[in-house]
Structures are given as C-alpha cells and as structure tokens.
Design brief:
alpha/beta, Rossmann fold, Rna Polymerase Sigma Factor, Chain: A, 3 domains, four-stranded mixed sheet, 15 helices, 11 strands
Length: 393
C-alpha cells in the first residue's frame, strides 16, 4: 500500500488521479491533498478519501475552510505547507498537477527525499527542467511524466538502449485546426477542445499550440534529446499519443483511447501494469488516422517554443512566464488571442537584448531562473498595459 500526496487535487488532472486511486484501492491510499481556493470540491474529496493532511495555498480560502469544516486531519497553509507534504516521511509518491511553477520547490524536495514524483506540471519542467533532472540523477530518484505524450514516449523507450533518431510528438490540433484564428475569437470558443477535457490554461495553450511547444521543451529535458530531433505531428483523433523512431528506422508508437487516467496510472504503478478503468480501443471502429504538419505561420507559439528550446538557458522560462501572463489576460478578456504570441515574442526579444536589465543566462542557477521568471511576468504585464484599450469583446 503506497501513500500518495496530490498537489492540485481539485483540478482536472487531480480529479482523474483520484478516480485511478479509487479503482486501485488495494494498491494506493490518499495521504494528502492540496488546492488553492476550490475548498468546496476539496471538502468532497476529503469526505470520500479521508486524507491525513490537507494543504490550502490561499490563506483566505484556508481560513474559510477551517471555519466551515470539521476536518480531523492536519491543515497546512501556503507554499510552506506544500513543502511539508513533499518531505513528509510517510509520503511514497508525490503527484504534482499544479498550474505554473508554484510547486517547484516541493518537487525538488520530494526528489531529494527520494520519493517517486509523478509530474503533470509541465511549466516546472519547461522553466527548471535541467536543474530538476540533475537532482533526479544526483539523488537516484524516480520522476515519471503524466502528460499523455511524454508517458507514451517513456513507454516506447522502456527497456531499450537503442539510439533514437527522432521523437514524434502528436498533437490534436485543438479547436482551430481547420479554422482561422482571428482577433474576434472569444475565450469561451477557445475553451471548447474537440478531444480533451482539461483546465482552462492548458486548453488555451492547446488552441494556440503553445502547449505542444512546451511539450517539445519538456521532452527534450526529460529524455535528454535536442529539440531538433523532436517532431510535432498533428493527429486529430488523438489515438497515437506519441512515437519514437530508432536509428534503424523502426518506429514504436503508443496507442490508447484519449483518457488521462492511463498515463496517470502508468506513472503511479510503473513498472507494473494493472487493469484500468478506461475504454479499450476497438480497431474495427477506427475508420481513419490522419496526420499533417503543423502550420507555424498560423500557430506562431509553436515556433517561439522551438526557438526558446534551441536558445536554452533562461529563455524557456521567459517564454513560459510571458505566456502564462498572456493566457490569463486573454481569459479575462483583456487581450485578444492573436496577441498572445505577440506578447511572448516581445518579451523573448527584450530578454535577448544585451542592454536589458535582466540579460539572458546560458547556464543559470535556480535563483537566476526564478529572477528571470519574475522579470518575464512583469515585462509581459508591461507589454499588455501598453496596448491601446480596444480589446473589449
């Protein structure tokens, strides 16, 4: 019986994790849960899974929770609470499904304490990936990806020492694959993903293909392969989750129904496999599998992500942070969807200038990346504030 701590249990991934655990009651038990503000869903999860610890990062929400609930376990508050959970001796597996880099130090602490880390928080790997993988190697820890694409790659590479020619990263193409991306597109339209049910931020990123760009950087870090050997292919059916081509030309792909519960369960149980509560593929009902190259002109965020991966250093962090601010501004109708890549591109350009107040660093320390993250968010806000007030929908 393994004790699991879920950071971000009230989000879409966190909910799926709890479904997996509920299906594998004899293997796992929920030791701790965390959320930011969604204490209503958290209360329901506590009632069902009865964790010993709960962490609420928002102090106001934590105070409200404490006054409204008779919770018998230990309530922790803020990012210090996340760190306490990550280093708790009774936690066997830490699953990080937080949005943004808030879970960075918790992830590093869990690695240093030699816990298995299942990571669904791509922003942490994009911005701090090299440092995290160095900690994994130094502490002989286990880190497994929860993204369906990176889980697929891990499965394709498992037990193989053959040289890799390329990684083929598949993308659904999002809601605008066969539609023009125009300035009048609303957040509500953008959130209608044709295949996956996800959180708002990742759904917007999927629509701009920034999500796939972040996954290119993430794959490069996780599997120690240059971005130039990672190819993005649009695959609308989302049946093939990714593939690996080896040096002899042989390609191994991972196929399954598009359900996040499979990569979640793989990350929790690897190297073992157990019966999963997902629908099996019926090949007789699969009429076609389509593939096409992504349009880098239509989806400039993907091009920017490749550029940041090639540059390396602090640039992926700057890309990620600027995008995070731009997406949040789009969600509240402050900017238009077409301005997201504009903002990211402007912040990246400024970061590369030698006269900039925070210059690009090729081999940054953790604190230098944190400074780059803070600078990029502030610079993105400046760019947004300088736009003329003509963005109302």
């Amino acid at each position: 019986m393994k004790n699991i701590c879920i950071l971000g249990s009230t989000g879409s991934v966190g909910k799926s994790v709890l479904e997996v655990i509920d299906n594998l009651k004899s293997k796992f038990q929920v030791f701790a849960l965390s959320c930011d503000k969604n204490i209503q869903i958290l209360s329901q999860q506590i009632e069902q899974f009865k964790p010993k610890y709960v962490c609420i990062t928002d102090p106001v929400a934590a105070k409200k929770f404490d006054s409204e609930n008779k919770y018998n376990g230990t309530l922790l508050i803020g990012t210090d609470g996340l760190k306490t959970l990550a280093s708790h001796p009774e936690v066997d597996i830490l699953l990080n499904s937080l949005v943004g880099t808030i879970g960075l130090h918790s992830t590093i602490l869990a690695i240093k304490n030699k816990k298995r880390v299942a990571i669904a928080n791509k922003e942490t790997l994009v911005a701090y990936g090299k440092i995290i993988m160095q900690e994994v190697s130094k502490n002989n820890a286990t880190l497994l990806p929860v993204d369906s694409e990176h889980s697929a790659i891990h499965q394709c590479l498992a037990k193989s020492n053959s040289p890799v020619r390329r990684i083929i990263l598949t993308a659904s193409g999002g809601p605008f694959l066969h539609k023009s991306i125009t300035p009048d597109i609303t957040p509500e339209e953008t959130l209608k993903h044709p295949v996956w049910k996800m959180g708002k931020k990742i759904t917007i990123d999927s629509a701009t293909l920034m999500n796939k760009g972040l996954e290119v950087i993430e794959a490069s870090v996780l599997f120690d392969i240059p971005a130039s050997k990672i190819e993005v292919v649009i695959h609308p059916q989302s049946i093939i989750h990714s593939a690996v081509e080896f040096i002899d030309g042989s390609i191994i792909a991972q196929l399954s129904s598009p359900d996040m519960k499979l990569p979640i369960q793989y990350a929790l149980t690897y190297p073992e496999r157990y019966t999963a509560s997902i629908k099996s593929l019926d090949f007789e009902k699969i009429k076609e599998l389509n593939f096409e190259k992504p349009d880098f002109e239509k989806f400039p965020c993907l091009r920017l992500a490749y550029e940041s991966a090639e540059i390396g250093g602090t640039m992926p962090c700057v890309l990620n942070s600027a995008n995070e601010v731009a997406v949040q501004s789009f969600l509240i109708h402050k900017i238009r969807i077409t301005q997201i890549p504009e903002i990211v591109g402007k912040v990246m350009k400024k970061h590369s200038e030698t006269t900039n107040t925070l210059q690009f660093i090729k081999n940054p320390s953790l604190s230098q990346i944190e400074k780059a993250e803070e600078w990029a968010k502030g610079e993105a806000k400046n760019v947004i504030n300088n736009y003329k007030c003509c963005n109302s929908f």
